[in-house]
Task: structure prediction
Amino acid sequence: MAHGYTPGLRITDNTIIRKRRRLPLPGSVLVEAGQAVQAEDIVAATELPGNVVTVNIAHELNIPPEEVSRVVVVNEGDHVQAGDLLAEVKALWGIFHSTARSPVEGTVESISDVTGQVLLRGRPLPVQVKAYISGTVVEVFEDEGVTIECHGALVQGIIGLGRETYGELRCLVDAPTEVLTADLVDDDCAGKILVGGSLVTYDTLQAAVAAGASGIVCGGINDTDIDRFLGYPLGVAITGQEDKPLTLVITEGFGRIPMSDRAFGLLRDHEGQRASMNGATQIRAGVIRPEVIVSHQASVSRQAEPLQEPQLAAGQLIRLIREPYFGLLATIVELPEELQMIETESKVRVLKARLEDGRQVVVPRANVELIEV
Result:
């Protein structure tokens, strides 16, 4: 068998990257096909309906529900401010009266004599979609969004936290084996994406937040530090929506694991350049990898290669993701066609690989991931 397909991490300095940017609801597309955009440019916008707030008029004024329409002083469709009068009941020639007021700014959506309630629709919530990468608009979807294309460098990670962010790359360590400690973070880190080595600690995450850094890229992190940073246990379904001011991309895994030389070298080569970063991760069907992208300038003359379906082949660089070789890098030597029996007495497809120390090992193909360079 010449090759096989497998999940993989992409680490490349020059590839064609496409990002589809869609609105959650129909709205307005603000750019045109062929237009050059920067990562933080707004390319589409819409408004989400505001939250519905229920005001129980019958309860507040102590009247039967069927009398609500008689005592309200607003109509459906009226715009009200927080504190505006919604309904009023007067007794004994106005000496005594009760009132119900709007708790929010919004629009009167309905008045019901059945429930005795007034429904208020809060102010619309603006939604703006940014380009995320600096490039060219190559597709426009009317009222929905666009596709942005660029030539750029791409480093994918194992797991990430946080939303899309942007910043200038800054390396805080000299080698991929070094730990990114809190004392390395200073005021000059504000608005930047910090590059570490083998481990980022909880104290470093806190120091980066205090300094106003946009994000951190590092080889490893302890799972307990992630839980402590989030304030709750990390889930296993999908990340990327965490309410944190810092985006995190881990390239290797949990624990102290040196960042791969290729990933560290690529990020260091682009130090000082502006990058886009997203911590969204999904490990089940429809895999989503956290990523760091550096869009090349239009003057780059090298021919970029489009992203291809990951595949295994002799000579490819891989990472072993199961014990006893967890985290080690290796090069594929051979891909035997026949099934082989492993320790569990199951017959599976395997590969032969050469570790960095020269040893040759045989492992199931399911226990590796491709490092695409």
